[in-house]
Design brief:
Blueprint: H1 6-16, E1 20-22, E2 29-31, H2 33-37, H3 59-65, E3 70-71, E4 83-87, H4 92-103, E5 109-116, H5 129-139, E6 143-148, H6 154-162, E7 168-172, H7 179-191, E8 199-201, H8 209-219, E9 222-228, H9 243-248, E10 262-267
Length: 269
């Protein structure tokens, strides 16, 4: 039988009312959520099970240290107004989704980005969370960071992040045309008690690629290839994603990499 994940050990310790547990990977003594709650406030150290939203961790250090969802920006959603939370990968699709919503008159938008709790990398995009923090700052948008841990349910971890935005009414995604991804999102968020009443929006759904590349060019922002998952002669990490690159992609490669062939990183002005 495999060793339990530290998250399972932690939850068992909390169920017993313990204030600490032994980490199964390192042997270190770790405070549980209950132990940290007994302190009464955040200590600013970026504790693994911080129940205080890491409120005392210095803003400039949060992307490197937080272990629970927390704000990574000084900007906040407009208080008292319905908020749309846009799931943000740091690539072209989420950026174009934001632009589409702004054109539709959606103004109170907060970004939510997930990243690996250990490597601090954005999944699939293969760049560090600090890059997304920089994007949010340049765009002047609120940003919540969600360090994902192996073990806990994905939607449970997202629900903790959404608790930071009590006025959230809509979750938005930059999906283009993958039906199974959209269906999974709709089913998963509808099934969770904390998110079942939220609306889901897909502002780029079935959008024409010609219109999307036109909008990317009009924005003045650059995007570069950040990761490649299958061989594409003449295309390398670091290349600018533009209509010229789209034209030279091999046959069978989605021009926006929607099937995961490649991923991009936004370089906002």
């Amino acid at each position: 039988m495999s060793e339990p994940l530290y998250w399972q050990v932690h939850e068992a310790a909390c169920a017993r009312g313990d204030h600490t547990y032994i980490d199964p990977d390192t042997g270190f003594l770790v405070f549980t959520r209950l132990g940290l709650q007994a302190r009464g406030s955040c200590c600013g150290a970026g504790c693994r099970h911080c129940p205080f939203d890491h409120e005392k961790v210095r803003l400039e250090a949060r992307s490197r240290r937080i272990q629970q969802p927390a704000w990574l920006s000084e900007a906040r959603p407009i208080a008292g107004e319905a908020c749309t939370v846009l799931f943000w990968s740091g690539g072209k699709d989420s950026y174009l989704a934001w632009r589409a919503m702004v054109r539709e008159g959606v103004s109170n938008i907060a970004l939510l980005t997930t990243f690996d709790a250990r490597s601090r990398l954005i999944a699939h995009q293969e760049f560090e969370i600090e890059a997304v923090v920089d994007q949010a700052e340049r765009l002047g948008l609120p940003l919540i960071g969600v360090p994902l841990h192996s073990g806990p349910d994905y939607v449970d971890q997202i629900a903790k992040a959404l608790a930071l935005v009590p006025q959230a009414e809509t979750l938005a995604f930059g999906d283009l045309h993958l039906e199974h991804i959209r269906s999974w999102r709709e089913d998963a968020f509808a099934a969770h008690q904390s998110t079942q009443d939220l609306s889901l929006a897909f502002p780029l759904w079935q959008a024409d690629y010609a219109g999307l590349i036109d909008d990317l060019e009009a924005s003045g922002a650059d995007c570069v290839i950040s990761a490649i998952t299958q061989e594409m002669p003449g295309v390398t990490v670091g290349d600018t994603f533009d209509r010229d690159l789209m034209a030279r992609l091999p046959e069978g490669i989605d021009r926006f990499g929607e099937n995961g062939e490649f991923h991009t990183r936004l370089l906002p002005t």
